Amino acid sequence: MATSEILEHPAELPPVLASGPWRWMRRHFFSSIGQTLLTIVVAAIAIRTLWFLLHWAVLDAVWVAADPQVCRDAGGACWAVIVEKHRPILFGMYPYDQHWRLVLMIVIYLATVIASLTPACWKRSLLIPMWIASVTAIAVLMFGGVLGLPYVPTSEWGGLPLTIILFTGSVLFGMPIAVLLALGRRAPLPVARGLSVVFIESLRGVPLITILFVAVNIFPLFLPAGMEVNKLLRITLSIAVFFACYQAEVIRGGLQAIPRGQYEAAASLNMTYWQTTRRIILPQALRICLPAMTNHIIAAMKNTSFVIIIGLFDILTATTAVMQDPLWRQFYIEAYLFVALVYLVFGLALSMYARRVESWVAVGRI
Amino acid sequence: MSLSSSSSRGSTRRSQIAGVVYSQAFRSAFYQVILAIFVLLAGYYLYSNVVENLRAQNIATGFRFLSEVSQFEIGERLINYSARDSYFRALAVGLLNTLAVSGVGIIVATILGFTVGIARSSNDLLLKKVAGFYVEIVRNIPVILQVIFWSVVIRNLPPPRGAVELWGAGFLSNRGLTVAMPNADPSHVWMLVAFVAGVILSIIAARFIRRRNDATGKHVDSLWVSLLLITGLPLLVWLLSGAPLDMSIPERKGFSFSGGSTLSPEFVALLLGISMYASGFIAEIVRSGIQATPRGQIEAAKTIGLKPWYITRYIVLPQALRVIVPPLTSQYVSLSKNSSIAVVVGYPDLVNIGNTVMNQTGQAVEAVTIMMVVYLTISVVTSLVMNFYNRLVEIKER
């Protein structure tokens, strides 16, 4: 009976080819009545917003104007404020006639970073001399005092170069501390393990600001009378240590993912602890947690903006100070959008790069 | 072993000593002792420097200053406070403000984050892209920049006369956000009590219902019972106390508003900044939670004829929560830590007041210690609760 019932049914037609632009549109935008309504509402809002933004930011905007009155008369954005104020925003209180040094510094920095992110350059014989050379060049440019360049103390540094220095310094100092803390937390020595746990957890439990307060207000008390450590260095180190505590947890995750067999194989080759760690464990562990590490590196960049609270002149502090100018004050949205854009570009570039690295790791290219 | 000749006795002892020295246990103990001594010495050195420096600068030590008169006013406070009160009370005002902004921030960030996270995992490509755009923007702009931005925006809003009206429920002006509020009524306290009782009762009821479902094979969804208890009990209390409906609705009056309650510009700026920043991260957590259920399970559930709501309720939700809750709580903790940037907009939170105390008394060590201890306590308590929750929801394996 069952068989005859089945036979009575005519064979169904094969499904219509599920591809082509119309099909694609239908699946992604109009698959049901509800979705169609949703698409229309979202599209309406999005188009209106984009239309407004197009008018405000492009069509009605004023790009160059020495007099803010021109901006007040126009209906759109006043990008002229950026053109007018870009130097104090980007370079802070650094002596005006020496700004070319900062431009050069940024160029050298970007070139070094881009080179070190390219796998073709990942050779110890290339990377280490390159970084030593560019750090020296940047130090010479920033400080001056040699080669006929006037000396500029760190208290006058500011703007984007200061943000770059804080960020790079905290990552460069922070990574080795992070690796040590992560190893300490996984060490077979209970004392080292306990110290690492207490250090990591207590720093992760408090806001960055309190650590900056320690660097600024308390750290000088730790030193014997008469001894001083540069404020910029203290602050960079404190952001570095804060960064290291978060990064250490990520690296610990990577270390935990290494199978026991790797340790045992190294031990059977009679490798010492440090040989095993350096040659076998760390290269694999760091590779595993590369994507997660990038997240914290981006966070470290955003964290540099906390220095506004302790009065360091990074790009955000500089912008806030510039926007006190009564003539241009009302165009604060444009100024802050510009700074936000700087952070966005760096952040998105880093996370895009991280995604690419992830795919390299997946195919075993690195 | 024969111990007849002295030379052989010596060499045995030497090899025994060598055996001890080269042994793993001795070495690890040795390194640890060295490390401990080093840390203790460094700690003692730093401590003695601090004592010396403080004596040289004539700064008092200890927490006696807490009972001294603070001599500064605080604009926003949840408890009574004046400049004649002690530093201790000033710090308590700050702590309550921190808890207030973090508490409201957590609620706002959760609502925003879940909305965006669900939008980000919807079928609609357009909605997905819009939500993704929002996430990338709010996550990649430093939270301080966002807070400063909102604070400047609010400061540049029109004064109360030209305030932006929000659908009849409130006003947005350079004085902050003024919203309608129910007038204080004794029943509110009891409604809160009823709410808490509802939560506790619903947990008990859920257990009972689950046991009954298992025993009888009949299905009752505990969710509806819980919802009824949690919303119904406060509503019942409200009705029993005569359903007080008095609302204080804000109106423009001269240069300010009458009625309603006003959230200060600092509070609103800080709240918007920290909760939007957190909402980007929460949205990603929610998305990963929704994606945690493998497609195959949903297809299998459809095959055995479960309705869409049952699939969501019994297949997707339990697995999603297991993935969502732990990182979500760590976002809550980091939101409350981010509230410490209040000082950039002048909201009197714990760190801001602690900073003032530090500048007035010069007792930086004590002031910073207080801030750190408070935040550490918040973190530790949260992680303890989290561990408890994890043990509750972890997959029960053999």
Automatic annotation (TrEMBL), chain A:
Membrane topology, from the record: Multi-pass membrane protein
One function term, GO molecular function aspect: transmembrane transporter activity
Residues of the signal peptide: none
Pfam families (alphabetical): BPD_transp_1
A Gene Ontology term for the protein's cellular component: ATP-binding cassette (ABC) transporter complex
Descriptive protein name: Amino acid ABC transporter permease
Chain ranges passing through the membrane: 33-54, 100-118, 130-152, 164-184, 205-226, 232-251, 303-323, 335-354
ABC transmembrane type-1 domain ranges (all copies): 160-354
TrEMBL record, chain B:
InterPro entries in the record: AA_ABC_transptr_permease_3TM (IPR010065), ArtM/GltK/GlnP/TcyL/YhdX-like (IPR043429), MetI-like (IPR000515), MetI-like_sf (IPR035906)
Domain ABC transmembrane type-1: 95-386
CDD domains linked to this entry: TM_PBP2 (cd06261)
Listed GO CC annotations: ATP-binding cassette (ABC) transporter complex
A GO term for molecular function: transmembrane transporter activity
Regions crossing the membrane: 29-47, 90-119, 189-209, 221-240, 267-286, 368-389
Pfam families recorded: BPD_transp_1
Membrane topology (UniProt): Multi-pass membrane protein
Principal subcellular localisation of the protein: membrane
Coiled coil: none
Key words, A-Z: Amino-acid transport, Cell membrane, Membrane, Transmembrane, Transmembrane helix, Transport
Localization per record: Cell inner membrane; Cell membrane
One GO process term, biological-process aspect: amino acid transport
Family stated for the protein in its record: Belongs to the binding-protein-dependent transport system permease family. HisMQ subfamily.
Protein name: Amino acid ABC transporter permease
